[in-house]
Design goal:
Blueprint: H1 5-24, H2 37-46, H3 52-65, H4 69-74, H5 77-84, H6 90-108, H7 116-120, H8 127-138, H9 148-156, H10 165-175, H11 181-194
Helix pairs in contact: 1-11, 2-6, 2-8, 5-6, 9-11
Amino acid sequence: MATTPAKAAARERAARILSALEAAYPGARIALRSETPFQLLVAVILSAQCTDERVNQVTPELFRRFPDAAAMAEAPLEEIEALVRPTGFFRNKARNIQAAARRIVERHGGEVPCRMEDLLALPGVARKTANIVLYNACGRAEGVAVDTHVKRLAGRLGLSAETRPDRIERDLMALFPKEKWGPLSYLLIEHGRAVCRARRPLCPRCPLRPLCPWPEKTA
C-alpha cells in the first residue's frame, strides 16, 4: 500500500519527536530492578497501578525468598500476599504471580518464554507486560508498551487519538520504525515524569513544545 502525503508527514513529525526525546533522555531505560527474566515479569505484574519506586522497595525481599519460578510456584500464597501487599491489589497480584510461575514451570521448563503468544497465555499478563518482557529480557520488539505516561503523551503529542492501549499501540507502531518500538516507551515515560506531567506539565521547558499540538499547553 502506497504511503499517502499525510502519512509521510505524520511519520516525519514522529521522527522529529523521537530525535528530540533521544537527545533529552539518552539514558532512558526501564526503572524496575530485576536480575532474571522471571523477576522482571513479576516486577512488571506488580507495577500495575503502582509506582516503580514502590515495586523496587518490595521485590528485594520477595526475590530473596522466592527467586525463581519453581520457588514461587511452591510458595505459600499468604506469604506472597504479605510481601506484595504494599503494591496494592495484592491478593489478585499474588494469585497471578503464582499461577504464572506454575504455568512457566509446567509448560516452559521454568524459563520465561520469549514468544508473545506464550506470554499472553500467562495469568496477569497483557500486551504491555509482554512487550516489556520481550524487549528487556529477550531482546525482541513486537510492539510498544503503553502505560499511563505513554497513553497521555501519545494523546497530547497528537500521535494517537485513541484511548484504548491496544489501539494506541497500533498507531505508534505505524508511526515509528520497529527498531525504536522498545526504547520509545521509556523515552515517553521519562518525558512524562520529568516534564509532561499529568498535572501541571512544565510546558515552557519542554523540548517538544514546537512539535506539540496540545491545546492546553501552559505558558
